Each structure stands twice: as C-alpha cells, then as structure tokens.
Amino acid sequence: MRATIRDVAARAGVSVATASRALSSERGVRPENRERVLAAAAALDYQPNILAAALRGRTTYTVGMVVPSIGNPYFATLVEAVEHQLRDDDRSLLLANSRYEPQTERRQIQALLDRRVDSLILVPCDRTASRDATADAAARVPTVQVDLRVDDHAGSSVTVDNEFGLRLAVDHVVGRGAYRPVFVGAEPVDSSAQERLDGYRQATGRYGLGEPDVLLGDFSTDWGRAAACRIVDRDPRPDAVICGNDMIALGVLDGLAAAGMRVPEDIQVTGFDDTPYAALSRPSLTTVRQPQDEIAAQAVRLLDAAAARSDSPPPQRIAITPVLVARGSTLP
Amino acid sequence: MRATIRDVAARAGVSVATASRALSSERGVRPENRERVLAAAAALDYQPNILAAALRGRTTYTVGMVVPSIGNPYFATLVEAVEHQLRDDDRSLLLANSRYEPQTERRQIQALLDRRVDSLILVPCDRTASRDATADAAARVPTVQVDLRVDDHAGSSVTVDNEFGLRLAVDHVVGRGAYRPVFVGAEPVDSSAQERLDGYRQATGRYGLGEPDVLLGDFSTDWGRAAACRIVDRDPRPDAVICGNDMIALGVLDGLAAAGMRVPEDIQVTGFDDTPYAALSRPSLTTVRQPQDEIAAQAVRLLDAAAARSDSPPPQRIAITPVLVARGSTLP
DNA sequence: ATGAAAGCGCTAACAG
DNA sequence: CTGTTAGCGCTTTCAT
Fold first, then answer.
1. For B247, nearest residue in chain A (alpha carbons)
2. Which residue numbers delimit the HTH lacI-type domain (chains A, B) (predicted)?
3. Which of A159, A281, B11, B263 could form a disulfide with B40 if both were Cys (CB 3.0 to 4.6 A apart)?
C-alpha cells in the first residue's frame, strides 16, 4: 500500500497538518520540522494523492483540451505545444477528440468538466453549433478558444490573424507576377475558413484584381486535388493558387503535377499553417506559418490569469501575427 | 454550486446510500425509488464528482498514455485510435509526451500514476533506459507497451510484426527486379529500429543477396536526405532503398530527386508505417502499413482483461501482421 | 431494500 | 509555529 500523509507525519513525529504544510511548501513550519517531514516523505517514497487534494482543495493540476482531430498534424503539433507548456508547471493534459462533431464535442467537454479540470482549451469545430457548449464550459471554468472560435461569444481566444496571413500570401504571389489568382478554401463552417476567405477577398480587392475567384470545399487533400482539376481546365488559366491550408495545397500540388503543370513556373501555389508536411512536398510549399508555441503559451497564460482572479477577468482576444515562409512552390 | 448526491437524495426522499445505489445502477433498489432518484438527478442536473468516487472507490475511468512525440504523425494517429477506443466506454485519456527522453518519460509516468490512472499505455522510447520505469509502472497498474517495447521485460505488449513487415518490403522490390537493395534505418535505440534492421538482414539473407547493406541514422527526414546523397555516390549504385520508416523514406525521395534520379525507374523506395504523409509524396510512397486501430483495440482489450482479474494475468505479447501498400515509389 | 455511519487522503479553519 | 477537528462527495459495510 502506498504511504499516506499520516505515515509521513507519524514517521516525522509531527501532526498531519504540519506534514501537509511542509509538503505544500507554504511557510509556517519550523525549518527543523520541515526537514524531518521531507526526509520522512523521501524515505517512505511518499506520493501525494492528487485526487484527495483536489477533492478537498479546488485544483486538479489538470487542464482539458478538445480538438477536432488529434490525428491531424496541425492539431497534433498544437497539442504538443500545449502539453509542453503545461509540463513546465507539472500539470497534465486531459485530451479529447471531437471528430468535428458538435455533439461529440459537447459530450467531451462534459466529460472533462466531470473530471474537474482546472481549465479548458477548446478548438470549437463549428462556428455556430459549438457555441452553447463553449459558453456553458466558460461559465464553469476558465476557458480559452484556440485556433478556432465560435461566433458571437465573448470568451477569450487566441488565434492567428488569418486575414493578415492571407494578405501575406496574396502579396507574395502578386509580387512575383501573378495577376490571376484563385483561392481554394473550405466552406466557412469554422472561423478560420471564414476569416481566410474574407482575407483573400480583401487582399485581392486591394490590388483591384477583379471579382475574387474562389473555390470552396473542405480542408482536405482530396478537395485540393479535385480543385486542381477544375483549375487547369479554366480559360484563362489562373497563375496562382492560394490555398486555405496546407492539406489543400498538397492536394493541389498533386493534382497540378498529374495534369502536367509546372509549379512554380506555370502556376504558383501557397498553403497555410506550415504543418510538418509543407517542407517535405515536391516542390516544397510556400506557406503561412502559425507560431504554435506562441499560441500555446498565450493560451496557457490567459488561463492562468483567469484562474488567479476570483472575479472573471474581461475576456481577451489575442490575434497572433503569422509570417510567410517562402519555399519552392512560389517563384524566387 | 453543483448539486451533490445529498441534494439528489433529499429531493428523492431517500438516503444518500440509496441514491448512490440507484445511480450506480447496481441492483438492490426498489424500482419505484430508483425512478425517483433518477428523476431528481435529472431535475437537478446532477453530475457525479468522479474525483470523489475515485477517492472512495478505486477507478478513475482514466487511462494514461505516454508517447515519445505527440506531434509525430505516427504517434498522433495512434493516440487518436486509442482515444477513440476509450471514448466508446466513457473513459478519458491523460496524455503525456516523453520527448524521447527516458528521464522525462519516467517523470511523466509518475505524474500519471499520481493522478491515479486506471491503467497505462506506454510507448517506451528506449529499449534499455525505459526499462525500469516501465517495470515500476507495471507493478502498480495494468500496463501495456504499444508499438515499442523494452528489452527483457515480461510485460504485455502490442506491436506490429516488424520482421515480417520488412520481409514484405524486400520481397516487393526484389519481385520487381531489385537485386542490390540498401537499408536506411535508425540506430537500434528503440525496439522497432532493432527489429526492422534484423528483419532486413533476414529478408535479404533469404535471397542470398550477399552482405546486407545498411545505413543507420535516426528516424528523420534529414537523415533520409543525407543517406540519399551517400547512396547516389555508390558504385555500383543500389537499385532499391528500403527505409526504416516513412520519414526517412520521404527524405530519401527528396534527396534522390535533388540528385536527378528517377523513382521508381532508376531506384525503388519503400517506407514503413503508412503515415498520412505516405500517400501525399511525389511519387507516392510504397510502404508497410501498421493497422493502428487494431493495435489500439488490442491494447485496450489487454488492459481491460488485466483489470478484470485481481491476480495479474500472464503477460501477453501480441504481434500484429502488417500489410504492404503498393504505391508509386516502386515499380508496378 | 434501506439507512446510518465510517472513512478514502488531504487541506483548511480554528485554537492553542 | 503546531495540533485538533472538520469535512470535500462519494461508496460501502453493517445493521435494520
């Protein structure tokens, strides 16, 4: 049986209260006694029962996170960044997958709340359908939306500045001679899809490139491939494809190659996210990088700030400025 | 304040004991009373405090998992498969990252144990350095090693049959005319690296292809790229590159293309794992698929079997047979 | 079938 | 500074 704090106290010859104080490293214990408690704990290989502490106190040192798809490389690296951030502080990550289903998302949030997570990091999969669950969660524990966010909800969020990111991409290709770009994105179900679409429209509008040309599907490679087929058949043919994310871009690259087009000579291509894939494609993909470490750091910071105050602090919306990473899919 | 079981009991006009029994859906409660308890719970939006239940009882409905790198697409999809498996049963996943550091791995296992996970799924990052921590964990809770395993430890494990997988790859390229293959793998720090290397040696031995040609680095794209440079300089030049995993293969593909070689005409290439990347490269990658859903299912099954018995059941080592997925990087 | 009561291991008043 | 005393919310004997 594992040693409890009573065993430690007994061995150190003090009361459990003193042992607890010494272990929790608060002050208010005579150095000599603290010594003895610590020694006893070490000798007994004492490991506090976090569950009991959580039941009595109020923190579980656990934060919950719900993402649409753990297997998606973008979210996987985001989860990794968050976990890394948390580990520095000896906290753990309770991870759940919504599978892009608002229904499932709701249940997962509930499950995390049942486990008394201290706070929640959410990537709401649907701009509207995720709203209620997100709001309910925020009413219970400090909550921050990351990467994606729901409409009309005043909670805190940390996202990348998608509009700006798209402008970077458009500026880049236009600066390299493109004057007939096309956007291949996703139906605006989530906030990024929406903002990137808006960003594209704004950016092309600034150049007076005429009616924005957009093709909308989902954030998948398959869609990118399908879109590429449509693009090559166009007359006049676009000279740049601005994609809503890297997956789409990879599909576009593949579809274009299959149609015998040369990238970037015949047509330039850009992605968004800078997932690990981007550097590996042939040609390598010019893309807009999301600084995930910073996103994770800000999210955790916001959560901690909220936890530190008993009143709920005003929600903050942090938009991180992305940078463009130029690679082989655009002209030098 | 959230409703507690006392509130439910009061509202239903029964004792907490009866309420607890009704809620835990054990039998021994008059149908009529159970009705009332359930109704009261619903009315009060009662949500049991899992922590309290865990403190008193013994299960947390939480399983811990430690992987070397969450961001690695292979592990990300494995985590997803496990999470999916667990969700069906309303259990949660406490995830941790060892970052390929045995030290960190040990701490993470400890942290999970502190949180009283019911069982542990481990991907030990080092064949030898992870041994003690793995054994300690197994002494405390049902534990299963997945994908990787430590040397000389009799615990349960679920892995793919790496030797067989390599034989599939070698057979495939040899069947397509290759007679001078080279293996680009990783130093045998973890068990897969070791087994794949062994598998390559055995497979080529069967064909009498002479002294096995192997290049050892790590499981990264960079290493694959570097290895490709060495390969093109060889005289006579190899006609097939069997890689230790997909990442290496992608690097090899890149390095070969940079050197102007055609794949698969001049040289065939195979990977291992069938990560999402494999289908996206150009040419797409012929690889050995690991059935992750099955691996996850078996792992969870083993854990549940162990939990069901009070005595520790005999450890099981399950080796799942992989299949080859032929794509464009090998001849038709 | 039901209720009273005893804790699980810990922290947080409250006295001393 | 330290010990005593209550519980946190739940499950589980043990009587009834």
1. A280
2. 3-57
3. B11
Q: What is the DSSP letter of B278?
A: G
- Asked whether the CA dihedral B280, B281, B287, B293 is positive or negative, the reply is negative
* Pairwise CB contact (< 8 Å): A51 & B48: no
**pLDDT at residue A28 tops 80:** no
Could you say which nucleotides of strand D lie within 7 A of any protein CB atom? 1-5, 7-13
Sort strands A287-289 and A323-325 into parallel, antiparallel or unpaired.
antiparallel
CA distance A23 to chain B (A): 15
Q: Which nucleotide is nearest to A47 (CA to C1')?
A: C9
How many CB atoms lie under 10 A from the CB of residue B90? Answer: 10
Chain B residues whose CB is inside 8 A of the A68 CB are none
pLDDT of residue B306: 86
Distance (Å) from the alpha carbon of A29 to chain B's nearest alpha carbon: 25
Q: Who contacts A151 (Cβ-Cβ below 8 Å, separation ≥6)?
A: A127, A128, A131, A191
Run of H or E including A191: helix A191-207
With CA atoms as reference, report the closest residue to B83 among A121, A141, A132, A72: A72
Nearest to A80 among B80, B87, B97 (CB): B97
Provide the CA A16 to C1' D16 distance, Å, integer. 37
Task: Verify whether the Cβ–Cβ distance B96 to A92 is below 8 Å.
Answer: yes
Q: Are A48 and A5 in contact (CB under 8 A)?
A: yes
Asked whether the beta carbons of B319 and B160 are under 8 A apart, the reply is yes
User: Distance of CA B150 to CAs A217, B102, B189, Å?
Assistant: 45, 12, 10
pLDDT in tens, B100-134: 999 999 999 998 998 889 999 999 999 999 999 99
Nearest residue of A to residue B249 by CA position? Answer: A280
Residue nearest to nucleotide D2 (CA to C1'): A18
Quick: pLDDT tens for B44-102. Answer: 999 888 899 988 877 888 999 999 999 988 999 999 999 999 988 889 999 999 999 99
Token representation of residue B325: 């997925």
Q: Do A254 and B282 touch (CB under 8 A)?
A: yes
**Spatial CB neighbours of B7, under 8 Å, sequence gap ≥ 6:** B40, B44, B46
CB contact at 8 A, B155 and B191: no
Indicate whether this model's pTM tops 0.85: yes
Asked if B298 and B320 count as a contact pair (C-beta separation under 8 A), the reply is yes
How far is Cα B186 from Cα A197, in angstroms, rounded to an integer? 43
Q: Of the candidates A301, A275, A298, A304, which has an alpha carbon nearest to the alpha carbon of residue A288?
A: A275
Give strand letter and number of the nucleotide nearest B18 (CA to C1'): C2
* Protein residues with Cβ atoms closer than 7 angstroms to any atom of nucleic acid strand C: A 1-2, 4-6, 16-17, 20, 23-24, 46, 48-49, 52-53, 55-57; B 14-18, 21, 27-30, 32-33, 52, 55-56
